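FYI - complex with magnesium ion, inputs then prediction.
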Amino acid sequence: MLTIKDKTFVPFITQATLENRITQLAEQINQDYKDREPLLVVVLNGAFIFAAELMKQLTIACRVTFIRVSSYHQTASTGVIREILGLHEPLEGQDLILIEDIVDTGLTLQRVCRQLGDRQPASIAVATLLFKPDALQADLSPDYVGFSIENRFVVGYGLDYDGFGRNTKEVFVLQE
Ligand code: IMP
Ligand code: MG
């Protein structure tokens, strides 16, 4: 059990299950990208542990960079605009693999994909540790999914509740 502030979380995905699945994803990416040199684009903060575990098991030539989607947003006629911070590399002609902790509504990722897409990469794929298909509102489907889960709040292995709970070896779910 894990208590963070006012909430109680219970074990959900074990360390061994996480690690085995990430190994499988890495093998898949090694196959799919064997003749390419992808740039991994890690969405901070939540994806850092997943990204590290995944990247350790990639045997292809690859690089990594980190972005942050600013929580500060302005409202414009088009709706919410979130700025991408930290991406200074040229992306033209690059194969990008976006690394996310979790795809919930998918709206964050959709914006990130659109903004990166404007910079003429050769391709964009999405790898996410967790995916909540029932919460999806965006028009996208992640290419590499660790686990599809029900629409419940999870923490651990990089994911947080109010900034806390990232530092665990397993994933926990909010007790109902
Ligand atoms: P989306 O734009 O709704 O897909 O939200 C994505 C972001 O919301 C993720 O990158 C997480 O930071 C956060 N998030 C969504 N669901 C959870 C959850 O169950 N636990 C912790 N963070 C979550
Ligand atoms: Mg996140």
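DSSP finds three helices and ten strands in the chain. The pocket of inosinic acid (ligand 1) is lined by residues 46, 100-109, 153-155, 159 (CB under 6 Å).
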